[in-house]
Amino acid sequence: MSKVRVTIGVLKFSRQIEEARKFARFVASDKGKAVFAEFGFSPAPQEEAASLMLYCGAGLRPPVSEIIEVFKRKTGITVQPDYSGGGVLVSKIKLRRKGDLFMPGDVYYIELAEKDNLIESKTPVCYLIPVILVRKGNPKNIRKLEDLARPGIKLGLCNPEACQIGRLCTQLFKKNGIDTNAIKKNLVFQSLTVNELGVQIKAGNIDATIVWDGIAAQYPDCADIVRIPRRQNIISFVAIAILKPSSNKKAAKKFIEFITSDEGRAIFKKYGYTTEMPE
Predict the structure, then answer these.
(1) Can you list the alpha helix ranges (DSSP code H) found in the chain?
(2) What is the pLDDT at residue 127?
(3) Edge-to-edge strand ranges of the sheet holding 101-103
(4) Domain 130-232: CATH class, spelled out
(5) What is the residue extent of each domain of the chain?
(6) pLDDT tens readout for residues 14-34
(7) What is the third-level CATH fold of 51-127+238-270?
């Protein structure tokens, strides 16, 4: 005997999208199915929700963690993140040859993975802007990039081989003619991810570091932000890619649609991240 599968969809032009989604979720819930059963309709078999693996830059963790939670509530799809530096993540993808999504701190790392034929497609997400993070009250009076090379400054930076902010710092110093030997003399802490640098500022172990604007926004009580003038700065462009080895491309596309939607962008903004290219 043939069967007809009945589904419910929310129309894009609805003026009450959220209310419509709530109704659709109720219809598909156990309570809704029980009502259909009372009238002799057979409930649809329970489908196992898809699960996605996301390789994600550590500097994007604050907003992405919340986006993953909201996405699961809305779709039932679980996203398992692996947070690390972009260079580390590229190595993992090449070695494992599995996973669904890749969102490093800069599109540069996606382009590296493309050379190994690992990328299906990529979509723009946001921008990461480098800022100088100093201890609260700025006791060493650090006002510009050049001040990081002054004698007596305890500096923390990311390893340029491990993640984008470290790689970018090397470019920043070169672009602005800053003595890299003086920087090396002041370097007392080197990390593998940008997140560790904010913790070092909070603990008072270093006087200054360079982090993303979104990471800096997480430390309002124990640190101050020194902005780098646009003409001196280098901004990272963040994209999310679907990996060719993915076996859940349909679910991966749903996640990309959500993370780049108005709701997803609002979560990035809530955590101090930039979703539009600064002037």
Answers:
(1) 17-27, 30-38, 61-75, 86-96, 107-115, 164-175, 180-186, 195-203, 213-216, 249-259, 262-270
(2) 94
(3) 78-84, 51-57, 101-103, 236-243, 119-128
(4) alpha beta
(5) 1-38, 51-127+238-270, 130-232
(6) 888 778 888 877 887 777 777
(7) D-Maltodextrin-Binding Protein; domain 2 (3.40.190)
